[in-house]
Amino acid sequence: MLTDALRLLAIFAIAFAINLPPAFMPATWMLLAFARIQFGLPIVPLVIGGVFFSGLGRIVLAKGSGYLGRRVMKSEAELDEVKGYLDERRNYVGLATFTYCLLPLPTNTLFVAAGIVNVSLLRVMIGFWAGRSIANAFYVWTSDRVFHSLANVFEQYYSDWTAIVLQAVSLIPAALLFLLPWPRWVFRWIRRTGRRGKPEVPR
């Protein structure tokens, strides 16, 4: 029992660490699948704890991205406009994050962008924890990959060029936050479209 507890803590620490970088780290579910296959750890605490600590790592990533982004950007006005738009629709942020996290897609860009925009992370994290708990439980439970060691987890990830390309491509939207004011264009277009679609109130 003590050995399993120590192994769980070690896996949680690694889950936290691999979610700190913005890209090019194996998915958390691969680490959790390794722990379940290699050590026979119970899936419920393994997944819940793994998702929780991976989320803590993503929070640090978001905060670090925000700290760096706000110093690199020439003007914060565009980011503040995006933040205002999202704050007005904050009840949808958690739902959108939850839906996204059900998909087998990297979440690094999501948290890099959230940090740069400085959106409130509470709803983002609730959506992340809920969505990834369901998704990772499914991936771990159904995984047919055999990981012989922790090093093998990384070897299998870095030998999969599609995963590397996917993570590289996923960084492009975050990079565009620095280069183009496209969020401001998009949200202004949405606002104009919404106003045109509303009937005028008679006076």
Provide key terms for this protein.
mainly alpha, 11 helices
Could you please describe the fold and organization of this structure?
The protein has 203 residues and is an all-alpha fold. Helix 3 packs across helix 6, helix 5 packs parallel to helix 7 and helix 6 runs parallel beside helix 10. The N and C termini lie far apart (72 Å). The protein contains eleven helices and no strands. The radius of gyration is 19 Å and the shape is elongated. The chain has one domain. The relative contact order is 0.15.
- Mean of residue pLDDT? 82
Question: How far is it from the N-terminal to the C-terminal residue, by CA?
Answer: 72 Å
Extended strand count: 0
Rg, alpha carbons: 19 Å
Weakly predicted, low-confidence segments: none
Please identify the structural class as seen in this structure: mainly alpha
Report the biggest beta sheet as strand number plus sense, adding barrel if it closes: none
Total of DSSP H or I helical runs spanning 4+ residues: 11
**Overall shape:** elongated
Task: Name the helicity range.
Answer: over 70%
Order of helices and strands: HHHHHHHHHHH
Q: What percentage of amino acids are in beta strands?
A: under 5%
- Give the count of structural domains: 1
